[in-house]
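Page 42, continued from yesterday. The earlier attempt failed because a stray header line got pasted into the input along with the sequence. Redoing it now with the clean sequence only.
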Amino acid sequence: IKAVQPKLDSAIHLLENKANNNELVTARNQLQEAINNQPSTTGMTQDSINNYNAKRADAQSAINLANSIIDNGDATAQQIADEKSKVNQALQALNDAKQHLTADTSKLQNALNGLNRTGDTNNKKTK
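This time it went through. C-alpha cells are written below.
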C-alpha cells in the first residue's frame, strides 16, 4: 500500500471537477418545449411552412448535440458554453420561424380580383 499510495495521490491530483452543465440543460429543455409547442400551419404559405419545418429540424439537431455534451462527463466548460450558445441560437431561429408563418391569402386575392366593384347603374335612380 505504501508503494502504491504516491501513485494514487498523483492520479487524484490529475482529476478535474466535472464542468457544470446546468445552464445547457435548462437551454435544452426550453428548446424542447418550443419544439413541442408546435403551431398550426393550416392555411399558411408553403414557403413559411418549409422555413418553419427546417428551423424545427435544426432545433432537433441542436437538442441531439446538446444531449451528447450533457451526457459527456468529460465535457469542458468551454464545450458546454459553446453548445449552450448553439441551442439558444436554434431557439431564436425557431421562434422567428413561428412568428413568420404567413397566412396564404392567394384564394382571397383571387376572389377579390373577381369582384365587380363598379356595380350596375343602368336603370337605377339616385335618392
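Notes: The two ends are 115 Å apart (CA to CA).
Reminder to self: strip header lines before submitting.
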